[in-house]
Write a structure and sequence with these properties.
single chain, mainly alpha, flat
């Protein structure tokens, strides 16, 4: 079968799922494809370039999922619902790939078109909501970092030493509020509630219409 960039990315994703970031190498990908490592360098010049292509695929899938989620919202949906739809789609997309959170976390630094598209659309949503330009980048980065961090915890390895029932009871006695907070909701509900809190905070930055927008900056609202 002809060696293509898509085949290399497919193999890279499979290897990454087994090895993680630090154990990942181009040679392992070549072994999986049963080719010499040198053959891969025609398509991907380095390990970093391959990781970028892999992260870009995950981000691209997340962008498409976000497009579908936004299309499914009612016409009267507000900006916070649009932010939430994008964040939920991103989380679901990352979770489909073992180690996807680590892979995606550094993709903006490598100028991944997929990751930059996620950021651009989120910035547009915030601009249309009326978030001032000096706060948009921080707000968007906070939302995206929260999603990748949340999934990173979900995809982390279980403790090397299992927690016994006795250990759990002792932790409940020592840290009752933390134990109660950890047990009160499932991960999906916790995630959506965390987005509610983030959007509530971002909402405090939005200027009332009576204040108007800065000179030369449209307020993004009709």
């Amino acid at each position: 079968m002809k060696l293509t960039a898509d085949r290399i990315i497919d193999a890279g994703m499979a290897v990454f799922a087994q090895t993680g970031y630090h154990g990942f190498s181009v040679r392992q990908v070549a072994d999986r494809l049963d080719v010499h490592a040198g053959s891969l360098y025609y398509h991907v010049p380095s390990r970093a370039a391959l990781l970028q292509l892999m992260a870009d695929r995950v981000a691209g899938q997340a962008y498409e999922a976000g497009t579908a989620a936004l299309a499914g919202l009612p016409a009267q949906a507000g900006w916070s619902a649009r932010v939430t739809a994008q964040a939920v789609a991103l989380r679901q997309s990352i979770r489909q790939h073992p180690g996807g959170a680590i892979m995606l976390a550094g993709s903006p630094k490598t100028l991944s078109p997929g990751a930059l598209s996620l950021m651009e659309r989120l910035l547009t949503t915030l601009a249309e909501a009326g978030v001032p330009p000096e706060h948009r980048g921080t707000a968007a980065d906070t939302v995206l970092s929260h999603v990748t961090g949340y999934v990173l915890q979900e995809q982390s390895e279980p403790p090397a030493v299992p927690v016994t029932a006795e250990d759990g009871a002792a932790l409940h006695r020592s840290f009752p509020r933390t134990a109660a907070a950890a047990a009160e909701r499932g991960p999906d509900e916790k995630f959506t509630r965390s987005l509610d809190l983030l959007c509530a905070g971002i909402g405090t930055l939005i200027r009332p219409l009576s204040e108007g927008a800065p000179s030369g900056e449209p307020d993004g609202r009709s």
